[in-house]
Amino acid sequence: MPSSDWRSPAAYGHAQSIPAAGFAWEYLRRDDEYRRDFHRLKRKSRDDTEAQTAFANRWGLRFRGGPGPARRSRCAILDARASA
Predict the structure, then answer these.
(1) Are residues 56 and 63 in contact, defined by beta-carbon separation less than 8 angstroms?
(2) CA pair distance 1, 55, nearest whole angstrom
(3) Which residue numbers delimit the Transcriptional regulator-like domain (predicted)?
(4) Which of 21, 28, 44 minimizes the C-alpha distance to 79?
(5) Structure letter (DSSP) for residue 9
(6) Residue 39 — φ and ψ, nearest 5°?
(7) Residue 13 belongs to a domain
């Protein structure tokens, strides 16, 4: 977990210099439903491209090279802990 309080305006001084995708990620990673969906997806097979595509479509995500099993790692899937 981040050491600063994400509810504090002071924690977002950097927000004016981040790109739109970074700002969207800051918002998305705090969404409880997103986090639940992510953990459900994480429990599925890496070969379940249908589930990965549905997850990406639901949350408006784009993956470089697509979300399919040809990916080398699952780091392309956005985990709320990845930016924490």
Answers:
(1) yes
(2) 24
(3) 5-64
(4) 28
(5) G
(6) -70, -35
(7) no
Work out the end-to-end distance of the chain between its first and last CA atoms, rounded to an integer number of angstroms: 5
Is 69 among the domain residues?
yes
Q: pLDDT tens digits, residue range 44-83?
A: 998 899 999 999 999 988 766 655 555 455 445 555 555 4
> What is the extent of the structural domain holding 63?
33-84
Q: pTM of the predicted model, to two decimals?
A: 0.56
In this structure, is residue 21 part of a structural domain? no
Quick one: three-class SS letters along 57-77? HHHCCCCCCCCCCCCCCHHHC
In the block, tokens 């780091």 appear at 75
Domain count, the chain: 1
The pair of three-digit structure tokens given for residue 32, joined into one six-digit string: 């409880």
Residue 60 domain flag: yes
